[in-house]
Amino acid sequence: QVQLVESGGGLVQPGDSLRLSCVAAGRTLSNYAVGWFRQAPEKEREFVAAIGRSGGNTYHAGPVTGRFTISRDNARGVVFLQMNNLKPEDTALYFCAARLYSDSAPVWNLSLDNEYDYWGQGTQVTVYS
Fold first, then answer.
1. Dihedrals φ, ψ of 62, to 5°?
2. Is 114 helix (H, G, I), strand (E, B) or coil?
3. Measured on CA atoms in the order 70, 82, 61, 119, is the torsion positive or negative?
4. Contact yes or no for 123/22 (Cβ under 8 A)
5. Which pLDDT score, from 0 to 100, does residue 103 have?
């Protein structure tokens, strides 16, 4: 069992930045592909970004492309989501998810939440104007 823990959420204003972190309690994430998802109140959970095991392959959803960047530091066992130029519509509970995955496989097909085996509890991001 992989227990994922997100952190870094907060209350910010439009145009601000946040960096979310995802770690696996008691183990390293280096063998797992990781995705970020978000869910706003009364809306479906939606894909944000995914990253392969080595960090060389990434894929970002259209609404966040150019503003959000997924990355990872395997030496520290952390996956990040850097969020710049935040907008009120980015307000949501943000989750990280993980699965074992070949590093040579594309990550564009990791945009579906049923592709993942492990999930964190989420960290809240609120962008208010």
1. -55, -45
2. helix
3. positive
4. no
5. 81
Cβ–Cβ under 8 Å, residues 77 and 16: no
Residues in the chain: 129
Q: Which two tokens mark 46?
A: 């939606």
CA distance 23 to 32: 11
Cα→Cα distances 8→18, 37, 83, 107, 115, Å: 7, 15, 11, 24, 24
Q: 39 is written with which tokens?
A: 């869910």
| Contact (CB, 8 A) for 120 and 96 | yes
User: What is the distance between the alpha carbons of residues 67 and 45, in angstroms, rounded to a whole number?
Assistant: 19
Write the pLDDT tens digit of every residue in 89-102.
999 999 999 999 88
Three-point CA angle 78, 79, 82, nearest 5°: 125
Could you report the per-residue pLDDT of 3-46, keeping only the tens digit for each?
Answer: 999 999 999 999 999 999 999 998 889 889 999 999 999 999 99
Q: Which residue has the tokens 């995914």?
A: 50
Is residue 78 within 8 Å of 108, Cβ to Cβ? no
3-state secondary structure of 97: strand
